[in-house]
Structures are given as C-alpha cells and as structure tokens.
Amino acid sequence: MLGWFLRGASSRIRTTRYPHEGDSSTGITPGRPVATQFSHSRAADTAATACPTGAITAHEHSAEVDLSRCVHCMACSRGEAAMKWQNDFNWASLSGPQALKTTQPFKKSLHIRLVDSGSCDAVIQEIKQLAKPYYNMHRLGFFITPTPRHADVLMITGPVTSHMRLALKKTYDAMPRPKWVIAVGNCAISGCVFAPSFMAASAVSSVIPVDVQVPGCPPPPLAILHGLLVLTGRAPAMQPTTPPVTEVAS
Amino acid sequence: MNQQTHHADDKMLVAMREELGNRVSGILESESGLLLSAVCRVDALPDVVAWVVEQRKYRFATLVVQALPSGDQLDYWFFKPDNGPWIKLSIRLAGDAREVPSVSGLLHAIDWHERQAEDLFGMVFTGHPKLGDFVLHEEWPEGVNPMRPEFDALKPMVEKEVDPQWRPEKILHTPGAFVMPIGPVYSDYAESAQFFLETVGEDVVRMVPRFFFKYRGVEKLAEGRSIKDVLLMVERFSGTSAVAHATAFCRAVESIGRISIPPRAEALRLIASELERIRHHFGLLSDICHSTGMIVPSADIDIMEEEALRLSAQWAGHRYLYGLITPGGITRDFSQSELTFLIAGITGLGHDAQQLYERLQFTSSFLDRFEGVGIVPKANAQRLGLVGPVARASGFNTDLRIHAPYGFYRCCPPEAEALESEGDGYARIRVLFAEVFSSVQLINKAAANLPVGAVSIPMDAVSAGEALGCAEAPKGGAFHYVRIDGPGRVARLQMTTPSFTNWHGFHLAAENFAFQDFPIMMASFGLSIAESDR
Ligand code: SF4
Q1: How close, in Å, is residue A8 to chain B by CA atoms?
Q2: Mutate to test the interface with B, among A198, A248, A250 (most CBs of B within 10 A)
Q3: Which residue's alpha carbon is at the smallest distance from atom 8 of ligand 1?
Q4: What is the CATH number of the domain that holds B430?
C-alpha cells in the first residue's frame, strides 16, 4: 500500500488546463471538416458525393459541413478534393433557437445522470474519460450521479431504441426541476446511421426536449466537456453555420 | 493453401460421404478447398450436428437464417481449430415451413442463436426448452418478425412500451427470498441492460440477465444498402471493436469478390487490430481496477488508455480508428516515420503496462478481490463455446489468429496463446496483460516485415455471392456472414459477436456469489452490451 501511495504521489499532474487555457495536445480530438473553398466547382461536388451521410453540401466554389450528420469516417480528409480540417473540439451547440434556460444556480456544481439509449460503447468510453486523470471534470464541479433524483442534467447517448424509450422518459421524469438535457453523439442528435428505423424513431429530441447537443462519432472528451460548459454558461456555444438537421417525420 | 490442408479436406469430404450417408446431400467442396458445404435432411439435423461436433471435434461458428423466395434456409457454420476446411450445413425448408429440430441440447453454444431466430424470423425449434421473448420484449406483437422480408425496416414501430414490472420466474421459494432487479438504467456509466439477482440476503443464488434494450436492428437495416453504407454501421455499432468488425465484414466482402488484398494492406490491418486490442484491454483493465476502488492503479491504467487513444488519433486520425478499413485494403498508407512514431508510442505503453502488472501482482488487497471470484471451469467454457480472453482464462484455446489464421496473422501469428487455467477473475486479468504484451510484439514484428506496395485494390463491382468473414476481436472471435445480390447491395448480414457468445456464459460465473462481488465479476468479464445487442 505504501508503494501505491508513493507511486501516486510521484506521478506528475497530467490534467488538461482547459477551459482556463486552450489545449493543443495532439490526439485529443479527431478534428472536424469545415467549410472549404475550392478552385473548381467540380472539387466541391466530389467532396459532397464522397460523404456517405450527406453531411457536405456543395456550392459554387465551396462546400460546407453539417457537423451533426458527420460520422467521422475521415473520407473527406483525403484525396484531391479534401475538405479543410480543423483540429478543435469546442463544437457543442445549443439545440434550437431558443435561449438556454438559465443554469445560473448550478455554476459551481452540476450532477449528471447518464442514460445509454442504444449507443455504441465508444461514446460511453469517451464520457468515462472525463472522470479520469487527463480530463478530470470534477475540478470543474461536474459529477456523474447514479440516481436521477440527484441529477440536474440528463446526458443521453444513442438513438433511443424503442426498448429504452420508457426507461429514458422515466429517468427524465424522476429528475427534480429545473433540469437540462444534453445529447451526446450524432446517434442521439439525429439517429445518424441507425435511424429512422423500426427500432429507433428519430433521436432524443422526439422523446424529451434537448438543450445542448454535442456532435461527433464519438465526440472526444473535451467536446463533451465543452457541452457541459455551454450548458452552464461558462463557454460560448458554437454557432451553427448550416441549417439545423431537418426533423425526421415519425 | 498448403498441401497439408488439402489432404485434410479430402479426408473430411470422404468421411462425410461415407459416414453420413443419405442424411446429407449435395456435398460440395469450394474451389479453394477451404469450405465443405452440404444440405442436411431436416429430421437428420441432430444426428449430423452430433457427428460434426462430437466425433469430428468441430466448433460452432454461427447460425445464419435466411428467408429466401424459395423458402427459409438455415446455415450452420462450423470450423475446426488448426486443421481442415470449414463446414456449412444447410437446412432448406419448403414454402411456409418453419419447423426445425433444436440442437441446443447437444450444442449449447447455439442456444441463443435459436432463440434469436425464433424471435426475429418466427422459426420454430422443436424441443428447445425455452423459446419466447428474447431480442424483442413482451410488448412486441406476437407473430411479427422483423427479419422477414415483408417487414418494413424503416417504418418506426411504436406499439406499446416495455413492461417495467417484468420479472423472471422465481426458483427460490424459501422465506425471505426475493429477486432484486438492476437496470436497465443503473450505476454510473453502465450500458443499458437488466440483471435480476435472486437472493436470500447477502448471497446471490443465481443471476438472470435481460438484454436487447439497445437492439437497433443493424442486421435488418443492412438489407438492401450498399456495402459502403453497411460498413459505416458495422464500424459503429460497437465502436470499441471497430477495426475487428470492419475487418471481418470486409474479409467476407473480399472473399465474395474473389480478391486478395495487397500484403501491405494485410500487415497494416494487423497493426491497426493490435493497436485496437491494446487500447481496448487498457479500457477493460481500468474498469477492473475501478471495480475494486484502487485509485492509484486505476489512474495509471486510465492514463495509458488515454495515451493509446491519442496515439491512435495521431497515427490514423481517429481515436477509435474509424474509417481505416475498407473493402479491398485500407484507406491510407503510412510512411516509415509514421510507423516509427507508432512503434515508439506502443513500446512505451507496453513498458508502462509491464510495470503496472508487476506492481499489481504484489498487491494482496487487489488479488484477494479477484482470486476465486466468478470461476468458469474449462469444461463449461468449452460446452458453451465461449471465446476470447474469458475462454482463454479458463484454459480453452480459442484464438482465431492462431487456430484459424487469416490475413497477415498467417505469416506473423502471436507467439503463444495467452492461456491460463483457473478461470477466475485473476486469470482473466493475467490473460489481458499477456495479450497486451503480445500485441506490442506483433506490431513490432509486422512493422519490421512490412511488405512494400499498394495498400488497396479497387473493388467497384462486387458480384452476387455469400461468405463468412472472421476476425479475432479484442473480446474474442467475430463472424460476419454477408450475402450480396445485385450490384453491390447487401442482401443479408449476420454478425456473431464475441459479447453475444460470452454473455450466454456469464450466468456460469454468476452463481452463488456474494452480492458485493457482482461489479467485480462484470468488470472481469468485460463484455459489451452494444456489441451483443447490435
Ligand atoms: S468525415 Fe464527416 S463530413 Fe467527411 S465524409 Fe465522413 S461523414 Fe462526411
């Protein structure tokens, strides 16, 4: 035991300084494609057709990206018609035009209940990273709680499978007011490659109201952290440059 | 293929003809000699399966049900470790017939496959002791089977909600006995699933799991989509094993298209798979340390996991290596300096893991929590056909990289299979560490022997056909059945994942245990719900 104590005491601090400072370590994010100017209109078209999810829209000499439909397949990062790639992560946005209900009372400490409504295990792994040494969200007052009764925020991953719909609603109802919802990952935002289907109608917003959305497949830990900071008004949200995803008729 | 295998083929072919007589017909050997297929008489199925698995010592790979225009077809796929061709036994039903004798009595590994086919296809397995709600829960209307061709995959089907009061039948009737439900929403970061612990207080007598809360119907959604679109789902339904599943799927597609990918692509696929394995095992080991509340070793392994994630992104652009594997090879080449960079990172991580492992071995408070906990005896692992680190911890050799080598593993296999014998939590930890070390070696070896040349060949038009692709995923063997008809459209996809296979055996370990050991057993099994539910 003493050995472990010494080991713990001798390890250096690795926690990111974000959000007090930027973090430009490599590998913390897959980055994202951003609006790109092309010299030929053909190149813009090529980029748009290369995208398997239709996230890229071609214009005359440029192409723009709807991040909430990008599944990070990296196809548009290669080839002759490569999109410009930005290695940032603060891409969480408010979902919908309405201003965020105030989270002022929760500036210091926020308890989060996570509900997996049919996501893959990678996004859960990325959320777990937040409580681990490199990101340590506890220093910013964010805590995961096992019970919805203590939760201020519901964090949801996955496209809401029909078997999870009731559990999700009940968890939401069990939370005391005021409460917020953050949708993490493109499955939760739009259903992505898994919806609409017979098992997943169309993402979280069709079941309960969503306040903040964090795109990505899976979103890296700092993007999720950015989402939490946006929720508490401690960081500006990314302004969507493209129209929001069209709702899928159910 | 080498001479030896061809020799074995002939023997098996002859044996099938002579010993099975008229119970099978239409025995065919594939061109490569790697697959023997035969059509089996419906009533003779139990006999034939018994012959294959008991006398010929074959192992079950997967059961693929297909609703074809001519009637339903069931394909039972088997393989023999180290030797001989794969076997595919087909049952062809005429018209609307749905009845097939159950073989789960003699082949326990097929149990969940039959239950799943009953739910999704409406098959009737006569003699199966427990059919009924499995993938689809009790709210689903009887007689509606989503995998049948007439069922519309894209139409949301909201009938009723699941019944939160559902409970398994109690077996204990002593006073004070009760069933404690856990989930589907429970614990801090758990994936959604339900567990019912039947207990008389402190000790849990048995555990009944209930899965498929996360069932997304990936296999149904795949039907009619292009290969490229299906690959997106195959990579994403269980993101922590993306490379393995993409590899298994692409191998099936490549085998349908009758192409062999360039050797350099094979070698780079190996490197990506092993990188994924290292990162994945770090994740499991972190869960294991967390389950016992050991903060310092948890932090150590957490750091290694994050560093492996960063290394993956630095090397290939994505933290979970999405978008790397493609039919025909891989999507990008790597320069020598990129490989050197990767090797330096991996070697450092291997070194850190070694140090942590040594320290843990001398920490009795850690070992005490795992020794003798959640034991799976070898005989049981074998009976249920368990796979991956869980099976190997029980001494059951299942590593496809060694026993059914594919791709670059043919010339560069792991030096030895990580086998232990106790089958308890501690044995599983040792297997995970041993595999991390062997993956580090493998990456080094593959990089040192990296062939030159292209990293992909174009695969534009894939003609109609079917194939089974396999890969050793971090959690164990994965089998992807793919049938393509028409121009590059997937007609049927069936993914048999290691988590699906191993959850079927989890109850073995979770019997007569102390309540507080449950999280520890879950962590040491290290299974994914996303991978199992699909
Ligand atoms: S990385 Fe995103 S935007 Fe680019 S092609 Fe893939 S899905 Fe489309």
Answers
A1: 6
A2: A198
A3: A51
A4: 1.10.645.10
Please give the DSSP secondary-structure letter assigned to residue B303: H
Q: Which residues of A touch B153 (CB under 8 A)?
A: 197-198
Q: What is the phi/psi pair of residue B438, to 5°? A: -70, -30
The verdict on residue B167 lying in a domain is no
Domain presence at residue A14:
no
Q: At what angle do helices B111-121 and B498-509 cross, to 10 degrees?
A: 120
Closest to A3 in 3D by CA, of B365, B369, B436, B302: B365
Q: Does residue A242 lie in a domain region?
A: no
Mean pLDDT of B344-361: 88
- Alpha helices by DSSP H, listed for B164-215, are none
Tell me the residue range of the domain where A159 lies: 93-231
Give the relative orientation of helices B295-316 and B336-361 as an angle to the nearest 10 degrees.
Answer: 170
Within this chain, do residues A219 and A97 fall inside the same structural domain, yes or no?
Answer: yes
pLDDT, one tens digit per residue, over B92-107 is 888 788 888 888 888 8
Domain C-terminal end among B91, B126, B161:
B126
Displacement of CA B61 from its chain's centroid (Å): 10
Count helices and strands in chain A by DSSP H and E runs: 6, 11
**Residues of chain A where predicted confidence (pLDDT) is lower than 70:** 1-2, 9, 96-107, 240-250
Q: A77 with A105, same domain?
A: no
Tell me which residue of A152, A215, A188, A172 sits closest to B185, measured CA to CA. Answer: A172
| CA distances from residue A97 to A102, A156, B36, B123 in whole angstroms, order as listed | 15, 20, 61, 49
Contact: A4, B297; criterion CB under 8 Å: yes
User: Does some domain include residue A12?
Assistant: no
Structural domains of chain A, count: 2
Q: How far is CA A182 from the centre of its chain?
A: 8
- Residue B390 is encoded by which pair of tokens? 């869980």
Pairing of strands A142-144, A110-116: parallel
User: To 10 degrees, the CA torsion angle through B250, B252, B254, B259?
Assistant: 140
Mutate to test the pocket of ligand 1, among A56, A67, A68, A190 (most ligand atoms within 8 A of CB): A56
Instruction: Evaluate whether residue B164 is within a structural domain.
Output: no
Q: Report the CATH number that the domain containing residue A188 is assigned in CATH.
A: 3.40.50.12280
Residue A106 maps to a domain: yes
Q: A131 and A211 share a domain?
A: yes
Q: Is residue B268 included in any domain, yes or no?
A: yes
Our count of domains for chain B comes to 3
Range of the domain at B199: 178-210
- For ligand 1, the distance from its centroid to the CA atom of residue A73, given in whole angstroms, is 5
Mean pLDDT in residue range B311-332: 90
Residues A81 and A149 in one domain: no
pLDDT over 90 (residue B308): yes
**A53 and A148 assigned to the same domain:** no
User: Measuring from each residue's beta carbon to the nearest atom of ligand 1, which residues come in under 6 Å?
Assistant: A 33, 50-51, 53, 55-56, 65, 70-76
Q: What is the 3-state secondary structure (H, E, C) of A22-54?
A: CCCCCCCCCCEEECEECCCHHHHHHHHHHCCCC
DSSP B226: B
**pTM, rounded to two decimals:** 0.89
Residue B99: inside a domain: yes
Last residue of a domain, one of B63, B95, B126: B126
DSSP H helical ranges for chain A: 2-10, 41-50, 121-129, 165-174, 186-190, 221-231
Question: Which mutation among A71, A83, A217, A242 tests ligand 1's pocket best, with the greatest number of atoms within 8 A of CB?
Answer: A71
Report the DSSP pairing between strands B489-496 and B476-485: antiparallel
Whether the Cβ atoms of residue A20 and residue A139 lie closer than 8 Å to each other: no
- Rounded CA-CA distance B488/B495 in Å is 19
Q: Could you give the ipTM of this predicted complex? A: 0.86
